Amino acid sequence: MGLISVPVDPVPSRTKIDLQLHRPYRTWLGFGRLRCDWCGDRWGDHGCTVRESAARLFLYTATASQRAAALDSGEITTTDLKLHRHARPHSRTPARHRRRKPRPYPTPPNPLAALRLELEAATR
Ligand SMILES: [Zn+2]
Fold it and tell me: Could you tell me the distance, in angstroms and rounded to a whole number, from the CA of residue 61 to the centre of ligand 1?
């Protein structure tokens, strides 16, 4: 019973760790451009590439209250909220190498149907 009542966090722990680790800092004693403190990547609108994908995954998986808490603490910014809308920009372009649909599995013979036929034959 105890296992059932434990609330499961839908956000992967790796995502939360990445959001904590990848933070911006200014180079040149605070006068340069923003870079990631953890991987040294250039800091864009959504941070470095690792942070951007982590933020995207967070928005996919987090509950509404988790999202609100992350916004309050500054882990997620308001610009990050626009991420999930453009998650798949090329989804409308047709796949160049579209795979053929796999053929449906042959239906296995139903042993129960065979048994019923046998019983029907026996009762006659
Ligand atoms: Zn980073």
Answer: 20
Evaluate whether residue 79 is within a structural domain.
Answer: yes
Task: Give me ligand 1 centre to Cα 24, in Å.
Answer: 8
Residues 31-47 pLDDT 10s: 778 999 999 999 998 99
CB 62 within 8 A of CB 75: no
Domain of residue 63, residue span: 8-86
Say if CB 58 and CB 83 are below 8 A apart: no
Cα-to-chain-centroid distance, residue 110: 39
Question: Position 69: which residue type?
Answer: A
Would you say residue 93 lies in a domain?
no
51 part of a folded domain: yes
